[in-house]
Design a protein that fits this description.
109 residues, mainly alpha, 4 helices, 0% strand
């Protein structure tokens, strides 16, 4: 098994249990706070205007892509709901053709 697949399965397993997910989130939170203390991560208020622009540009692009993808999904779902015909009622009257009726008679006798 490749490392990528192994990691994906491990993350799925961790996320499936609420307790392990909470532990994982707490661990990530502590890691982030330690990085912030060391100065490896800056808050937006501590950045210069140039740094803020450089950070916000990818944020805007990612938000745009996310919204666009969401719009496409909603549009396709709406189209699918409009184009799908309603469910046909189930006929309980019997066979629909003479051939099926003959087969049914032969099976019963």
């Amino acid at each position: 098994m490749k490392k990528k697949e192994y990691d994906r399965k491990r993350r799925e397993k961790l996320k499936s249990c609420p307790d392990s997910l909470e532990k994982l989130r707490e661990k990530e939170r502590v890691k982030y706070l330690n990085k912030k203390k060391k100065g490896q991560v800056k808050s937006v208020s501590a950045m210069s205007s140039r740094e803020r622009r450089q950070k916000r540009k990818p944020w805007r692009l990612n938000s745009f892509k996310y919204r666009e993808k969401d719009r496409k999904v909603r549009k396709n779902l709406a189209r699918l709901m409009d184009e799908t015909p309603p469910v046909s009622p189930v006929l309980l009257a019997g066979p629909s053709s003479r051939v099926n009726a003959v087969k049914l008679e032969m099976a019963n006798s």
